[in-house]
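Hi R.,

Here's the chain you asked about this morning:
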Amino acid sequence: MVDPLLQIENLRVQFDRLLAVDDVSFDLHAGELLGLIGPNGAGKTTTLRAAAGLQPVSTGRIRVLGHDVSRESTWVGRHLGFTPDTPQLYDTLTVDEFLEFVGRCYGLPATLTRERIDHWLEALWLVDKRSARVGTLSRGMKQRLAVARTLLPDPHVILLDEPAAGLDPAGRIQFRRLLASLRDQGKAIIVSSHILADLAEYCTHITIMGHGRLISFGTVAQIAGAESRERTLYRIVLARRIDDLSARLEPLRRLEGVRRLEQDGDVITLEYERDREAAARLLTKLMDAELPVAEFRPLAPDLEQAYLRSGIGQVD
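And here is the predicted structure, written out as tokens:
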């Protein structure tokens, strides 16, 4: 089996009495793109910082291409790129000057640096800003510049913390294409993001974190539940609002197997078995309650449902 580009083994990070990351382990291979989701305080950023060698670990080991992050930080720094959620840039330099400085820091030949700057400015839609001072850029532009800085030395492992922050819808579409391209080039990538629909489009794997631990880890299909045919969410839309809706829904709440029944105005959602016989039983209960059903359908499995099922709180 091909060796992983990134290995995290029994990672534990503790700040005084706060256990920020608790026994996290996973591998990431070439061509794999991991989406990292979870609420505030779940340990996502701390995990990324530890993987980048910026956060001392309490116990555990992190390797990049087989090299220990804590012992070989200089070597690892040339093969791993990290973009934090609030990147620190040099506001007084122009975009060109800043990236040229980054190239010199990595010891890249001037010609190669120039070629890569031209490439990433075009790929990240910053060509017309190359002479602008960094301090004059919008938040989204600064985020894209930080990604360009990360990608300039051509790292094998790429860590991105909320990289789509500040991007408009068109920018998000372009950014999804960029990440998919990097994935297909054989990079190993971790993206921490709260935009679950985007993650489902370009990730190969997903992990849900909560209270410093991995709640679940697997392929997008495994986490979303597409490989399990047992249960799903149903969405029922009524033709009009019903004053005594809660009372009418009581028989449905008592139906064996019904979970997470919620109502919002004229919309009802619930979790139940996903086969046709189960759907027929639900619809019969709704008819028995004399509810004016205008729409009744099972929802396709997705990451939002998977996250809600985990029960660990709001995505930050």
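One quick note: The first helix runs from residue 44 to 51.

Cheers,
M.
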